[in-house]
Amino acid sequence: MDGGQITFNDMAPFSDTGEFDGKVGHLSDMCILVAHPKGWLLWDTGVQPKKYDGFEFTRKRTLSSQLADIGLKPEDITYLAFSHFHFDHTGNANEFLSSTWILQNKELQWANSQPTPFGVDPSTFSQSEKVKKQMIDGDHDVFGDGKVKILSAPGHTPGHEVLLIKLDSGKNLIFAGDLYHQSLSRDKRLVPAFNISRADTLASIDRVNRIAKNLNAKLFIQHEKSNFDMLPSFPKYLK
After folding, report:
1. DSSP SS3 for 149
2. Residue 192's closest CA among 183, 206, 181?
């Protein structure tokens, strides 16, 4: 699903070794809707249109209007999970009040800490205190059958995670959150300057890359527009 677009005047913060210095960046913001016999999972909730100093969030369609294309409403989503709690991934979270929010303990504690961490907007997930929550620590099997797994991959934020999906066709997919922001980031193992831990980031990169290799999984970089364009246009889907 299309969670919006992000334009940066200068991508320098996305590598602490200078690869993006002075470069303009146009990033996608994909959200993933997973159908399972036991319910629906929505992974990440995109942006709210807004202009900031140095970058801008835009959005062509709301998530609700896209869900309506397949006859769903926000209250039909069984589970809601987030790669992490930066505001370009939690922008529409408060629309999903009937869902069970699957949250990493470390991530929620960090996002609610004071002063508010860089890149976090608590207003985008202000209903987190009221919704039904499933708190986790580390990896989690969403539906209990190994088909949809949340994998811990800290470093970008304390509770950052990626999504592994095993399709009935035998294909395996990984949606990598912000473990990488561009293809160059993955190729060169680049670490953004604003990541919480450089060491944890590199360890998570190594872990996820090895999992992808061992499972022969196709890995999608969620902010890479070319990766977004490789996916079927919603409401078409992979199976």
Report:
1. strand
2. 181
